[in-house]
Amino acid sequence: MMPGDPVEYDRTDFLRELIFNDRLHGTALEITRRVIEWGEGALSEKERYVFQRNVIEVFVTDECSRRGCRIPWSEMYQAHDNGGMCGDCRHMDAKIMNRSLADG
């Protein structure tokens, strides 16, 4: 990558964002730290199960709830808190809401 090029946001960045925003606690937090440091392959079967159940299944939204498009990792954290929408759909919903409020 050339200096000044945007850095690719990936799954590891998403996991770091969960930690930074204090969304993970206890065992889920420790296992997620291990995944960031060593990768998921370093987990035991039990740890992989806990990671899947307490992190991936809770915070990962694969498809936009509005259009069904794939949600990129860079929008995954926000999608968890906005009803599962991608950034484009979230923006469209906000525009519709603002228009409704202005008309009402």
Key terms:
single chain, 104 residues, mainly alpha, 62% helix, 0% strand, disordered N terminus
Please count the helical segments.
5
Percent range of helical residues: 55-70%
Give start-end ranges of low-pLDDT stretches.
1-6
Structural category: mainly alpha
Number of domains: 1
Rough outline: elongated
Q: Give the DSSP E fraction (strand runs of 2 or more residues).
A: under 5%
* Extended strand count: 0
Taking all Cα atoms into account, the compactness measure Rg is 17 Å
Between the first and last Cα atoms, what is the distance in angstroms?
50 Å
Task: Describe what this molecule looks like in 3D.
The chain has 104 residues and is an all-alpha fold. The chain has one domain (11-103). Helices cover 62% and strands 0% of the residues. It is built from five helices and no strands. The protein has helices spanning 11-20, 26-38, 45-59, 73-81, 87-103. α1 runs antiparallel to α2, α1 runs parallel beside α4 (73-81) and α2 packs across α3. The longest helix has 17 residues, at 87-103. The protein starts with 10 loop residues before the first helix and ends with a helix.
List the helices and strands and how they pair.
Blueprint: H1 11-20, H2 26-38, H3 45-59, H4 73-81, H5 87-103
